[in-house]
């Protein structure tokens, strides 16, 4: 196969603030929802207090990114570092930190690609009005976004609003939904989702007003669901699974309106959010410039009928909040044709080609992959090597799928896998690693936090150097 990537293809790697920075309360930073939840699990796994210690070692880490050959580095700003209580005083030290990181990246010829919000809402906003449940939160976010655009917009041209709104909203812990009644939880969820859409639109408009040549878009958690059989009900269930878990979000960003199939569900479940008339214009006029997608795996679905005990639209299992099943819609099944990672994600490079084609055909906007990767319990050998050939195989398959999608006519701007270095995984701490760079620490023993290049680091370096020809 002749892998042709465009000359200016943006080879990158990704991270997020609470998973990599550490220094959770240093230099005035406020606590976030991500910190709060990680502390609740401190006895089980690493928390966000030290993470990969990027806050103190960013110069060394950016030098390693340069050596890797990165063209872009996708990372997030911690809202609570800039505004510790979310909507009050600005923290100068927080602004300075990201200023230094951005300047250091630019000195190394690496383009900063910034996410404004990656799961880490300032906790003070939860205490004040339960975060996204309040309309106030959308305007607090707009103010925070404007502060970032004004501070960094002269040097940063690529912006992402929310990381994976469509996934985050499904996870009670990330949204701080503490409601045991399933219907009430879904009602709060729908209202929060709406306020996040409003915040997204406000940020898109502010970016276009304040950042010359600024490009902004969402980063969605992408899905591709196969019908488990060719029974028409299962085919419909597979479509619904994709539409409900991702496409509704892109459709709203794209058109400014809730699509009919989603509004029908909200009505059926009696959870239509409160919307203000004046929001319509804001939602409609905010035009995203590109779509970023995070892709890890595919799903397979059968139809799950509703019955008297299980009303249509209700979730079947609250245990798995991400790939949940929904009565009257879909149930996820194991795909017998795919292998799964040790943590259960069904590995499927072909699915990425499908997703890229689908999104491009549907929205005709440039695409970029801002997460893709394999989480594993890597082993550090005595001579300090990590032989992660399984990760190389995973990434190779997915990069080949990108090349094929480009041949199919998809306008793909870049590929930025997860993650640049090992970082705090949401439920497995430092046991589950994704990075090109090994961080020598365990969950409860932070050791020296030494940076060690894995085999995949050298492999990816070659891929970038040859613009994909070495695959
Ligand atoms: C993505 C998130 O959904 O998945 C990342 O944007 C996360 O923040 C990644 O780390 C991998 O998930 P996990 O649970 O393995 O950390």
Automatic annotation (TrEMBL):
SUPFAM superfamilies: (Trans)glycosidases (SSF51445). It comes from the Bacteria. The active site is at residue 371. Keywords: Glycosidase, Hydrolase. GO terms for cellular component: cytosol. The keyword ATP-binding does not apply. PROSITE patterns: GLYCOSYL_HYDROL_F1_1, GLYCOSYL_HYDROL_F1_2. One of its GO terms (biological process) is carbohydrate catabolic process. The keyword Phosphoprotein does not apply. InterPro entries: GH, GH_1_N_CS, Glyco_hydro_1, Glyco_hydro_1_AS. GO terms for molecular function: beta-glucosidase activity. Pfam families: Glyco_hydro_1. Signal peptide: none annotated. Belongs to the glycosyl hydrolase 1 family. This is Glycoside hydrolase family 1 protein.
């Amino acid at each position: 196969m002749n892998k042709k990537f465009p000359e200016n293809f943006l080879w990158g790697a990704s991270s997020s603030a609470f998973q990599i920075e550490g220094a959770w309360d240093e230099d005035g930073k406020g606590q976030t929802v991500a910190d709060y939840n990680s502390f609740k699990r401190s006895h089980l796994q690493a928390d966000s207090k030290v993470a990969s210690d990027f806050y103190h070692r960013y110069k060394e880490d950016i030098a390693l990114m340069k050596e890797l050959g990165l063209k872009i580095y996708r990372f997030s700003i911690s809202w609570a570092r800039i505004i510790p209580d979310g909507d009050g005083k600005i923290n100068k030290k927080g602004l300075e930190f990201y200023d230094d990181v951005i300047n250091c990246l630019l000195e190394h010829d690496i383009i900063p690609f910034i996410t404004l919000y990656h799961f880490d809402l300032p906790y003070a906003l939860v205490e004040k009005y339960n975060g996204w449940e309040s309309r106030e939160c959308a305007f607090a976010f707009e103010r925070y976004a404007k502060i970032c655009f004004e501070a960094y917009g002269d040097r940063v041209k690529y912006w992402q609003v929310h990381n994976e709104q469509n996934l985050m909203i499904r996870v009670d812990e990330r949204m701080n939904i503490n409601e045991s009644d399933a219907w009430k939880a879904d009602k709060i969820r729908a209202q929060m989702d709406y306020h996040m859409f409003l915040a997204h639109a406000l940020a898109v408009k502010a970016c276009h007003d304040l950042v010359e040549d600024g490009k902004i878009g969402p980063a969605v958690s992408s899905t591709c669901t196969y019908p488990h059989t060719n029974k028409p009900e299962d085919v419909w269930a597979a479509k619904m699974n994709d539409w409900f878990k991702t496409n509704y979000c892109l459709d709203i960003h794209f058109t400014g309106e809730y699509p009919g199939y989603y509004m029908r569900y909200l009505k059926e479940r009696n959870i239509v959010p409160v919307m203000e008339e004046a929001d319509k214009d804001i939602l409609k006029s905010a035009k995203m410039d590109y779509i970023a997608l995070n892709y890890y795996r595919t799903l397979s679905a059968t139809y799950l009928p509703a019955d008297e005990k299980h009303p249509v639209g209700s979730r079947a299992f609250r245990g798995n909040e991400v790939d949940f099943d929904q009565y009257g819609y879909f149930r996820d099944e194991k795909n017998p044709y795919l292998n799964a990672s040790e943590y259960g994600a069904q590995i499927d490079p072909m699915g990425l080609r499908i997703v890229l084609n689908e999104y491009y055909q549907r929205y005709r906007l440039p695409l970029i992959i801002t997460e893709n990767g394999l989480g594993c319990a890597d082993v550090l050998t005595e001579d300090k090597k990590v032989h992660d050939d399984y990760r190389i195989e995973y990434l190779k398959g997915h990069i080949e799928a990108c090349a094929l999608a480009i041949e199919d006519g998809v306008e793909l701007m870049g590929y930025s896998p997860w993650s640049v270095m090992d970082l705090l995984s949401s439920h497995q701490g430092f046991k589950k690693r994704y990075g090109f760079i090994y961080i020598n620490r365990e969950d409860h023993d932070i050791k020296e936090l030494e940076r060690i290049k894995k085999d995949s680091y050298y492999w990816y370096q070659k891929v970038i150097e040859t613009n994909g020809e070495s695959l």
